[in-house]
Structure formats: C-alpha cells, structure tokens
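Justification of computing resources. Each target in the renewal requires a structure prediction run like the one illustrated here; the chain below, 510 residues long, is used simply to show the kind of job we budget for.
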Amino acid sequence: MGIFIEFDNITKTFPGVVALDQVSFDIKEKEILALCGENGAGKSTLINICAGLFRQNSGRVILKGEEVVFHNAGDAERKSISTIFQEVPLCLNMTIADNIFLGSHPASHGVFLDKKYMNRHTEELLEIFHINKKPSETLGRLTIAEQSLVQILKGIDTKPEFLILDEPTSALAEKQKDILFSILKKMRDEDGVTILYVSHRMEEILDIADRALVLRDGKYAGEVVTEGAKIEQIIKLMVGREVIAENIYTKRELGDEVLKVSNLTRGHKLIDVGFSIRKGEILGFAGFQGAGRTEAMRALFGLDPVDSMEVEIQGKKARIKNTRDAIKHGISLISENRRDDGVIRNFDVIKNMIASNLNEVAPFMFIDNNLSKDLSQKYVDMLNIKVSSIQQLMVNLSGGNQQKVIVGRWLMTNPMVLICDEPTRGIDVGAKSEIHSIMMELANEGVSIIMVSSELPEIMTVCDRVIVMCEGRITGELMRDELTEEAVVTLASAFLTSADEIEGEEIAPA
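Resulting structure tokens:
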C-alpha cells in the first residue's frame, strides 16, 4: 500500500505552549491508524490541522503525494476529508434530517429543499444503528448516545476518502460500537477509505486499528502494530517519559472524615459514584476525557441535577440542591472552564474576587468598597498575583494570574472542601508550580482539596490518594505508595463489559 497522507515535521505553538513539536509520521492507503496519548499530548491539535481549523507554524502536510494547505474547514472537505469530533454542538432545535444534511442540503425545484429525499435517506441511515426515531424528530429530544450517532452518520455519509474520528464511542453502548466498527472496517476494505481513529480505550484500539501511533508531550513517541500486540506496550509508550518530581509533596497527618458522598447517579453519566475525603487531604480524580470526573464535581457543587446523591458533612447528612447549599456547607469549586464559568473578563480584579462572597462585602445589600478592596488586596498579596493594581481588568491578565484570582475568590469563602477541576489547564510552568504550592499550603492548614486533573505528573506531585474513573464509574483507588502512571492509565482505560446492559436495558456509557 502506498502512503495516503504524510505529516512532515509538524510544529504548532500557542502562547506559552508547544502543542506539536516536529511531529512526523504517515498513514497508508486503506489503513486504520489509531492515534493515542494522554490528554494534552497533541492529538486534538493534529486533528484540527487535518480538519482545516488550525494552521501549523511549520512543517508540511502531504496528501496523496502533493503538499496541501488548509485555510479553513471547507478546504479540508473539498479534499474529501471528513472529521467527526468528540464534542461538536449539533443544532438541537432542528430535525435529525436537517442535521444530517446541514451544509449540503439537496435542492429541488430551484431553491426549495427536497424534504422527501432527506427524510427517506435519513431513515436508511438511522436503520444502520437501529435507531427507532423519525427523521422529522427534533434532535434535542434524542439521548446523548443517539445524538452522537447522528453526528457519526453525518460524517460517514459524505463518503470521504479520509475519515477522522475523535473518541467516537464515548457515548455508545457495546452493540452500537460493534456496528460502528463493522462499518469502519467495510469502509477500509471495500471502499478504500483511510481512517485516523483517536481513542483512549486500549481494547478498542487493538480491535479496530492496524497500527497504534503514540504522541507524548507533543512529540512522536513511537508506534505499535496492533496484531499480536498487548495493551501494556501502548501504555508504556504513553507514559514512558521521565517524570521529574517537583519535590513539594509532604506527608501530613490527616484529620477526620469531613465529606462523604455515596450513591451519586445521574443517568448514564454517573453510576453509583461514592467517595470520601479527610481533613487536610488532597484527593485526586484521574481518568480520560468523558470519564465523569467533572460531572461528579458539578453534581456535588449543586450545578447539575442528579437522580440520587447522599452527602454527609462531618458525619451529618447534608442536602445540596444548588450552589448556595454547597457554599453554605463549606464546599467551593474552581471550575474546569475558566473562560466561560470562572472569569468575568471585562470586570476588574476586585469584582472577580468578591463575586462569590457578596454576603461578606455587602451585608446590607450595598457593597462595602473599602472592605472589597482590602480583601482583594489580601489575596492578591497572599497568592502573589501579578497585577498593575486591583482595578486591572481580568482580560488583561495572563492565564496563570487569572487562575490565581479565581483561587482567591474561593479562598475568600473560607472553604472546608475546595474542588479544583483542572486547576492548571492552559497556564505556564511557573504559574502551575505556584498553584501546586498553594494547594499544599492549604492542605497543611487543614483545607480538604479534591483535584481533578488530566495530567498524571500533576496528580502524582500533590495527591495523597487518587480515585480513577472510567465511563461514569469509579474503577479503582490508589494510595500514595501505589501511585504510578501506568497504574492510573490502566484503571482509566478499564473496559467495562457490564456497562452495556443494566437490568436488560441497553445503555450508553458517559
């Protein structure tokens, strides 16, 4: 087989981050190549370059022997490249058929849409996955798994020469996954389609791919021919880098249990999740994207509704129905999405600091400006936040300093339990180290910290204990002396054979 597409010394940088560093490899014609790596390894960046959403800083993309430059998604589509992203908002207020044909509506009688053809063809597609829905049904009424399948059907229906799939089975049940794999193998063997398949699920990779190529820290780390290969070979490539410890971890005498969560269930996203944390403990939550870590934290903080959840605070039952209840019980959350959920970009540092603590700074419904300034300056000094003044707009701060302002905001509430969801995402190495030191200091002072992180070295740097999740379930717990990157990745990629059917009903894992 000849080479279908080649990546020659691809480098892509973002401010303060080298996402891809001189990456070179090729994909053969009629091959399914699995692209593996931890979160942050560079997989999504490479996909976005293929899809025409990013431009590399240097290097060449050579498609069927000719160098190509994609300025936008349309350029990639015109080269018969179809990308199925893990999370792309579909039009939930439109019909299934409209979503399938979005951007490529067949016309009849001039400018009018051929609705009969659209509905008939959509019915044929839905039958492939045994989706018992009408093409005219609004997409928002479908389950997450069904919405995911619509996105997959839209991607494969374009009959591409090069198909890219990013975690396509993250919301699918086992039977749906089997159907998808049969389709992909048919596309490869009979239609000659070349496929790039991105997944964290090791068993899937050995099942569907001809080769598995690993990126690590933005660089090419190696590859494995999957026939006869073992999962451990891929995992070794994924975590094989030298881990340099920051030497900030200190063993502490932990106090009594301060929080216990049990029977946390939310549809198929969270299934019977339970855990506890002691005073002064840093409890890590590890797992790949879609494992349910963020969903569990949002539920605990009262942001999302749940089917069931039992909470005990210092041995007493507590009811958390909303964020106000959570804060009242001493729980605070530093959100994963700093841009959308944390930072008020066009407000100054003061307003961002006091946003979650208005009861203290406005006891009589009017904000005490002097108190607000004093408290804000206190945490700016404590956290070494680099600002020209506390009146500086957040939009003008670096990502690391924005993050420290958010930390200060929640420290101002005097939390008993501080949830940090990806607390160092998108910030530079220096700021990351400072955040780690702050967390250790808070733990030493008796604050209990739950840290969700996709970076295994970070988990190993600060955590006393780590809980690992996969597909909405807890798959294991590792004490400090058991904590290795390979142990975490193995649990995070655990294949949950019982996740397909519960009480005889097919479900779609989160």
